[in-house]
Design goal:
Elements lengths: L11 E5 L11 H9 L2 E4 L2 H10 L9 E3 L5 H13 L3 E5 L12 H9 L4 E4 L4 H9 L6 E6 L4 H12 L4 E6 L4 H12 L4 E6 L7 E6 H8 L8 E5 L9 H12 L4 H12 L3 H14 L3
Parallel strand pairs: 1-4, 1-5, 2-3, 2-4, 6-7
Antiparallel strand pairs: 7-10, 8-9, 8-10
GO molecular function: rRNA (cytosine-2'-O-)-methyltransferase activity
Function: Catalyzes the 2'-O-methylation of the ribose of cytidine 1402 (C1402) in 16S rRNA.
GO cellular component, one term: cytoplasm
Length: about 290
Amino acid sequence: MDVRPGTRFAPGLYLIATPIGAARDITLRALDLLRGCDILVAEDTRSLRRLMEIHAIALDGRRVLAYHDHNGSQMRPRLIEAVQQGKSVLYASEAGTPLVADPGFQLARSMIAEGLPVIAAPGPSAMLAALTVAGLPSDRFCFMGFAPAQAGARRKFLQEAAAIPATLIFYESPKRIHKFLDELCEILGAERMAALCRELTKRHEEILRMPLDDMVQALADRTLRGEIVVVVDRGEKQVADAQTLEDALATALGEMRLKEAVAHVAATLDLPRRQVYQAALALEKDRPD
């Protein structure tokens, strides 16, 4: 698409991905949208203005409006009204893809609720970049984002993550990374393979690939800086024993009909539905009237 000065885009919310490091990772379509959208909105206005300067894109009288967690409730009605009045609104996260660990979720959701167009201009993503270079299975993965700050909530979060049969992707801050790796070892298993990806696409990019316990030792005396993504291999599949299956069915049958209970337990324990159904029939048969 060749966008010339004065070109206008159809009304809607345009979500553009911005570089996570190297400025040239921006897409041509994102540059077109930066030139042509009526209203520019950013999580970090300085970052977006700097990106536009690097790529010689003029504001042409437009302002860059801030949208973040602290002003979202005030900004959303204004931006919705702008689209309703025929304006094209561009939203850019500070770095990477909007709505991925980013405050833009409520903005996009509100636009959708009003029946307004929401258009993605795909591009850089720290999550996918890390998965690409981690060397771990990518056929099934789960983005976990940042773990909760509170110890109890974080432990529960990681215990739930440990049971997910997929490669796991976490974001973490340099200040918490050592403690976080210790917790991953304890809860997910010290032997699990992992990749720590730091400062992806930047000058000091670093990728470590090794079991979690080796990673803890390798980083013990280091102070890490920059953006960090931790990718962890899926765990060994745990096959539920007969008692676990019976207990799960007993609970489910107390709350659901037979068919619903079988479907729920089969999905939860990752067991064949036929096996669960036979076990449910046997359990129902043995129950006193």
